[in-house]
Amino acid sequence: MKKSRPPLLPAAMLVFGFVCGAAMAQPASLKPLTIKLPPETARLKPSALPGYQAALQKCGICHSADYINLQSPAMTQPQWTAEVRKMQHAYAAPLTDKEVADIGEYLAVTYGGAKTSGMAVVVPPPVNTAAKAVDVQALLTANACLGCSISEITR
């Protein structure tokens, strides 16, 4: 006489259900991961060139000023301008063509051995650095930051 075995399928389904339920259950004490970065200490070298203000306003959105010091000091103005243009086209940096040229000149003159293009330099008014309430999401959206890899940190 054959011994009868308990049905395997219902038992397997029961075990599978317990395992899945335990894996999906999360304790209420788990909180989303938050990262607090240290304050930025690097600063761009001041300049009367118009690209300085544009770099302060646009480049610092995604880059630390230390990033510039990692580049070769032998970079020419066309090379710097090409780097900035790459940010405009490949990474959707919100830059006008004039800002690309101005920032390229500022970087080449200030961080390399280039000379100014000879155009009249207009000193823009100082930027108001007084603390204000900032809508972070609006800034991220307006400056195309949500499309770059830094958004991976916030997920």
Automatic annotation (TrEMBL):
Source domain of life: Bacteria
At the top of the EC hierarchy, this enzyme's class is oxidoreductase
Task: Write the signal peptide boundaries.
Answer: 1-25
Any keyword Cytoplasm?
A: no
EC number annotated for this UniProt entry = 1.8.2.1
Keyword set for this entry?
Answer: Oxidoreductase, Signal
| GO molecular-function term, one example from the UniProt record | sulfite dehydrogenase activity
Protein name (Swiss-Prot/TrEMBL) = Sulfite dehydrogenase (Cytochrome) subunit SorB
- Organism in which the protein naturally occurs: Polaromonas naphthalenivorans (strain CJ2)
